[in-house]
Amino acid sequence: MGKKNNYTKSELAEVRGSIVHGRGMFATQNIPESTEIIEYLGERIDKEESNRRGHALFDESKETGGAQVYLFTLDDEWDLDGNFEWNTARLVNHSCEPNCEAQIDEELKIWLVALRDIRQGEELSFNYGFDLEDYAKHPCRCGSENCVGYIVAEEYWPKLKKKLKKKKAKAKRKAEKKAEKKAEKERKRVSALKADG
Description:
Elements: E1 13-17, E2 23-27, E3 36-40, E4 43-46, H1 47-64, E5 71-73, E6 78-81, E7 93-94, E8 100-104, E9 110-114, E10 125-126, H2 157-196
Parallel strand pairs: 7-10
Antiparallel strand pairs: 1-2, 3-9, 4-6, 5-6, 8-9
């Protein structure tokens, strides 16, 4: 577990506009590796309520095209819903090369902890750890050198890369067939013009 910083509201980070997505959190000073930067706050809920809220947000996203999910798994019984204005940690954006990670302590509190030294002014980020089920609905805009294009946990990257390779190959074959049909149509048109001329 990292070093505690004794702040309920972190003096190590503040909310600002982000080029990654809307708003984000940025380091207000240099932060050493392993420092607990900010607690991810919210309402502790059981799995049944968590599933209900998760499904409701999924239904909302199908209707509106947007719904933020701030649910964290704490253990086999409990999750934490961080969808509250006073939980500024919910604004930390995803990255495929994060500088923080979410760690759960013995009291089932979630802390965002520095994975490495973070410079003052640097945007904080962590990997949201989504699965592959609906990866296409979660494009990644982190801009990191190793970005995989979608917000998924690193453990799924090999499978995602295979899926994307197949998808690209399928799209290429489709484009080639379309080009062949267009070329054939043009050859027939030219032959018909020559026959008439």
